[in-house]
């Protein structure tokens, strides 16, 4: 698809390759090791040595692919956040806001459920690295810009859309949703808590945007029984 390339997490010190090599077993092993460790530890608790050990590689091997711990972390985050943002953009482009939002909210919850350690680690990472804080804010602003553009297309098609400051309100909503998901998925919780948060967020967006979302929240919810957070 054409559109924004979500590669902002890539550290300036990361070796100059346009994408992570999918055919390189050792590089993939390092990223998978970092994912596993982030399910148990915060980014500040990881070291190049611990990542290498988890991957079953020598510490010196790490520096063939990455020149710092931050480079490994940024590539690991990008491997999760990038595809999520790409799918988010495609859903809005193909369907418009009103039709796409239920799937977008499901995508958000599914990503948090699967990658709670990585996304929880993002919260610490952006707090201690101003460059990546700007990247994360850019993700949020890009997401909102796509949503506002999709809402305008819906309006032009004759669908009901509110007339307030949608950009500012949706940006505030995105930051709030991020914090709510972090507080839920970074601890043990039950399915009912997930359902409740999903329904609250779903209703808030409907009120903020003035849209008549095509499905009720109970119809679009797709949680899995017995899920608890992994980290």
Automatic annotation (TrEMBL):
Residues 24-84 form the HTH tetR-type domain. Residues 47-66 bind DNA. It holds the Pfam family EthR_C. SUPFAM superfamilies: Homeodomain-like, Tetracyclin repressor-like, C-terminal domain. The keyword DNA-binding applies. Coiled coil: none annotated. The keyword Lipid metabolism does not apply. It comes from the Bacteria. Keywords: DNA-binding. One of its GO terms (molecular function) is DNA binding. This is HTH tetR-type domain-containing protein. It comes from Actinopolyspora mortivallis.
